[in-house]
Amino acid sequence: MINLGIKKWAIGIATAIVLITTGCNNSDTPADTPTSGNITISIDESFQPIMDSQVYTFESIYKYAKLNPQYKSEGAVIQDLLRDSTRVAVLSRDLRPDEKAVFDQRKIIPRVVKIAIDAVALIVNKNNPDTLLTVAQVQDIFSGNITSWADLSPGNKINGLTIVFDNNNSSTARFVQDSIIANQALPSNTYASNSHEALIDYVSQNENTIGVIGVNWISDFDDTTAVRFMEKIKVVGVSTESSPATTDSYYQPYQAYIAQGTYPLRRYLYIISTEGRTGLGTGFASFIAGDKGQRIFLKSGLVPATMPVRVIGLRQ
Asked: Which residue range or ranges hold the PBP domain (predicted)?
């Protein structure tokens, strides 16, 4: 025969457990799943416009998901990954062997997914008559062999030449060193601004400058910010031919030319996850690599990694 006091005690405990469980389920912090939870993502700041669109769309679809994007220089994003300050990052390069070794020691295998093809754009002042450069001339500028626009082109009356990047430790500066000047040091006439907006403003106010910027900031013509930036500067066309190159061999960083590979200053965009299980970071990575995320890249002027870009040829 069951003691009534014990029975009441058992019922009380069971009721408390139900209330606690219900309270947890109704918490403001949802469980961490591929479509719910709260995570911080470190993102290379040269991709802020496109990643703002990706984050906004993802959160609009999944109302219990909260992404906290932190836009930083490439060097700072890498440090966040290595220090475990974030477990999801968006970068323009894969991890290097020494960086992978850090995760090997932690028994973690980073998941790296290529999500788009991007490009680095060269921009100049509106008053600069030189908007066409060969790759060889670009190499001479960034290696310090050419230090004046007047030396680059006899018809150019602009003296001096200043190189400006978006930030210290930026991915665009690293790209120039890795892919254009074979890991040489940048010349003494190289400077860094505090932001992409400051970079564009500086170029628009100084005739002798050449700016280096991620094409994402000027590629989406439906974005009022990109349109406003384009009104302030000129975008340089680049040719792989030797100087003097034929006029039709110069290409600007338009989507079709990036897709075809005719614009030479291309780079890839990756999302890297070090999550130990399938959480919100993995869900966001899957979204970006999937149909909806790839269409957002397509609309922004970048080249999706998994969706073909339609190139139409017109006959005269």
From this structure: 29-291
* β 162-165/209-214 pair status: parallel
Q: Which CATH architecture has domain 37-117+268-304?
A: 3-Layer(aba) Sandwich (3.40)
Helix (H, G, I), strand (E, B) or coil at 67: strand
Nearest in space to 49 (alpha carbons), one of 78, 90, 88: 90
Fold exhibited by the domain 118-266: D-Maltodextrin-Binding Protein; domain 2 (3.40.190)
pLDDT at position 30, please? 58
- In this prediction, residue 309 carries a pLDDT of 55
Portions of the chain given CATH number 3.40.190.10 = 37-117+268-304, 118-266
3-state secondary structure of 25: helix
CA distance 248 to 15: 78
